[in-house]
Amino acid sequence: MSQEAWNYLLIGLTFAMYIGIALRSKAGSTKDYYVAGGGVSSFANGMATAADWMSAATFISMAGGIAASGYNASRFLMGWTGGFVLLTTLIVPYLRKFGKFTVVDFLGDRFESNLARLVGVICAIFICMTYIMGQMRGVGLVFSRLFDIEIATGVIIGSAIVFFYAGIGGMKGITYTQVAQYCVMVFAYTIPAVFISMLITGNVIPQLGLIGNFTKDGAEHAVPLLEKLNTLNVDLGFAKYTDGSLSKLDMFCITAALMCGTAGLPHVIVRFFTVKSVKAVRSSACWTLSCIAVIYLTAPAIGAFARTNFIDEVHGTAYTELPEWFGNWEDRGLIAWVDKNQDGIVQHQAGAVFEGRSPTYDASGARGTHGERLITNPLKENANEVFYAPDILVMANPEMANLHPWIIALVMAGCVAAALSTAAGLLLVLSTSISHDLMKKLVSPNMSEKQEVLSARLASFGSLVVAAYFGINPPSEIVAKTVAFAFGLAAASFFPTILMGIFSKRVNKHGATAGMVTGIGFTFGYITYFQFYAGHQNYWLGISPEGIGFVGMLINFAVTFLVTALTPAPSQAIQDMVEDIRDPTGAGAATHG
């Protein structure tokens, strides 16, 4: 079978499975739509949460970032993993004991304030919209390569699929679809890693291959893989693969923002509202961490393998002799080569490539002397001849290793599953925030259950339209970077407010509202200014937009405590409720109230 046939077969089978599950799990009530009926088993919820958590940023961009920048990308591994531990120990058992549908419900009831509820809705929309646009970009990248279509068309197709099974099935449909998507992802991530590890290092276990010897040139020339990567990078003018180029302060802030942002992500928190009890929350968290570990422990190996294969296949090779995969990705606009010295040889070396964010191809489709696509935007001084989007390296890795077409198709199916699973979870939070937290709680309290579900589906459609637009026109070309902004916003808004709401009886509605507004306002303003106006220069104390959420979080804490100290304490009933929440021994079903 051809590569195209394998692509259609595996993607078609997985789509049929997702849609079939959604149809069988159609939500019939708000309880089904918001928390899947509240009776999901710990094991199933563990897999579903892992799928929801392991987005396109994890599946596509994390290993791609490791391949492109080595040590610097470890911030994603450390931040996201550590953050999940914070989430499962400090947040979800207590919110599950509270027994409501949403995070914003907790904020509104805990702080006895519709204003706090409204600010929570706005924060949820900002966070989830920033996150979901990265997922839609990931879907577009995969579909573009799979079916030889434009990225924009791929985004639209992906949006339609997500709306169908998320909008129809709600949390009930999403949960069991995500179980299937996790299975697809774990096979798509580990099977190619095993084959590539055997080819490069002779080790069947990728993690051992990472710390083993590079044997592709023969056993007599064996050398530790990481040592070979360091040598290759230095020879080409890059920093050592195992060294970092980010400042220690920026590295710390980014990691902390990712960690605290993880613990404040509403689409992950709400997954634990679907199980039966607080005890089940803890059990589900263990299953989730186990499921996540399979992929997170494999990512560094995949990144190292991809980096090695890319340099080995590309650098010093005549363009006319490059493997077919290079041309395939070049045609998609995700790899580019400019023959700066007119020698016909591809030189992959240190240096930024183009003026601007990415290559701008000649609109006429003209080709250069060697058959390369022509670029209209100029090279930078001392430029690298090669441009590639780090997000493609996981997808291109099996092609670089010349693996069988079915493995390549499997990886593509995994990439799609990763993006769709998280997009669906985010879409649910967006629709819930609008239909339940805004419309039902603030605008129209007498809304019937049927009207509430309808408004949730309409909100899903509207949210996807906006997300698709930004997926086609992303604020950053790298999926993980766009997603990192969402984590920063969550770290600066939800995490400190939820934490103080659980562990401080004194914090009141005035402090919580002021803290959320200043935290997310500062963070969003900083990201917007440096991402769209000032460029990558003159960061405050050298802290990049990816890490500024940590500073926003500190501002949130400071403002909350200051305003709380100057205003009256909450009512005794609220203080008693906080006392009860902090004793997470059993919980009833999630309620509408």
SSE blueprint:
Layout: H1 3-24, H2 30-35, H3 42-53, H4 56-69, H5 74-98, H6 103-110, H7 114-147, H8 151-201, H9 206-210, E1 213-214, E2 223-224, H10 225-235, H11 248-262, H12 266-269, H13 278-296, H14 299-314, H15 324-331, E3 335-337, E4 386-388, H16 393-400, H17 405-443, H18 449-472, H19 479-492, H20 494-503, H21 509-532, H22 548-565, H23 572-581
Antiparallel strand pairs: 1-2, 3-4
Helix pairs in contact: 1-8, 1-17, 3-8, 3-13, 4-14, 4-17, 4-19, 5-11, 5-13, 6-7, 7-8, 7-17, 7-18, 7-19, 7-21, 8-14, 8-17, 8-18, 10-14, 11-19, 11-22, 14-16, 16-17, 17-18, 19-21, 19-22, 20-22, 21-22
CATH architect. name: Up-down Bundle
Q: How confident is the prediction overall: mean pLDDT?
A: 83
Radius of gyration: 24 Å
Strand segment tally: 4
Can you count the helices?
Answer: 23
Low-confidence stretches: 587-593
**How do the strands of the widest beta sheet line up side by side?**
1-2
**Helical proportion?**
55-70%
The level 1 CATH classification is Mainly Alpha
Spell the H/E element sequence. HHHHHHHHHEEHHHHHHEEHHHHHHHH
Q: Beta-strand percentage?
A: under 5%
Distance N terminus to C terminus? Answer: 56 Å
Structural class: mainly alpha
Structural account:
This protein has one domain (3-306, 403-581): Sodium/glucose cotransporter (Up-down Bundle), CATH 1.20.1730.10. The chain is 67% helix and 2% strand. The protein has helices spanning 3-24, 30-35, 42-53, 56-69, 74-98, 103-110, 114-147, 151-201, 206-210, 225-235, 248-262, 266-269, 278-296, 299-314, 324-331, 393-400, 405-443, 449-472, 479-492, 494-503, 509-532, 548-565, 572-581, and strands at 213-214, 223-224, 335-337, 386-388. It has a two-stranded antiparallel ribbon with strand order 1-2. Helix 8 crosses helix 17 (405-443). The chain is globular, with a radius of gyration of 24 Å.
